[in-house]
Amino acid sequence: MRDELWLDYVQAGAGISNMLTPLFAFDLAPYRSLLDSGCGFGFVVDFWASRGGKATGLEPSNYGEIGSEKLGIDVRSQYLDEFLSENREARFDIVYSSEVIEHTPDPDAYAGSLVEAVTDNGVIVVTTPAISAIHANADVGAMIAALSPGFHFGIISPEALKGFFTRRGLYCRVLEHENQTLCWASRKPLPAIDPSKFSWRDYFNYLETLSGNENPHLSAGALSRLFKDALNTGDEAWAAAAYDRLTRVALDYYGLDLENPEIGALLEMRKPLSGLNRFPSWLGGALLFGGLHVGHSRNDRRTKLRMLDAALKVLARRADVDRQFGQEAMHFLPFAERQYVIALSEALTVSLCSAEGTSEGDLRHTLKGLTSVLDQFLAAPSELTVHDAR
Description:
Rossmann fold; 2 domains; elongated
């Protein structure tokens, strides 16, 4: 399972933008060195190094070993307390720890080690799942991610997290942002912090750099993120360039024609994280947003509908079979279903408009009725059968 885990992570599982959100929330210019405790594969370490800073990661699992090799970064196979006991003078301007503290049996002691590692003028940055994600009507994917049964010791309230640092005399700010609790702490008054102040340009530049990695899974994963996020933020030029490169990589390395995908073999796979060397975990999202891109940029309704049809099937399988890893697929499924209805209506518009004797008023009435019927199906997805539209 080792290969499947890291492949899924670099292809789509790692939320790189979420990792960078608490860093982009304040001015990074004064800070030179970064320690990432529990760095996983090492994307934050790699990002910091790509900016010319000194970065060290700590990761005792094999994620860190693989990331160090593939990214060419400094990752030590150690826990934080082990690293500090061997490097008693080591201090860092930014001590970063994302989605780690909930994995520790003694989060207060772990917070103390973070304090020990930061310089007098430095900033500690911590993220952990938000307790507000746990309630009776919560999104299932978000709740699974927050609780992560078998991996998390518990879930930490904002008040408890803040107390870990204020009891040690630090200034601290804690807030909830998109199912995460974000925390910044420092011995000195904190800089201005705004988690909505995300630097898309810096993020895209990093993904562009990452897309040049010699490992095809890493490079394609970066391209899929770059395409999706550039498209969703309205950067059409960057999205178009990333899409063109992604389609070439998909064909050359995975043997996938994104605009006419053969996914039958994938849909038959029922083992979690299977087939990633042929069907990468970014496939569903790439088909969804690729279809929208093709429809908008080329006005190619037939290809758009075909891609959205495939996207629905791939996303639904990901959400079902790869359940613990498929939170993004669960999130995008309702949107994909609605976009499929729109694409089907557009395709029928073209077909009906070509038929003699069909007035514009009759056409609008027919499409309104069709959309109403499809919406009823989409309200109960288990009853929806999506047919191959070619």
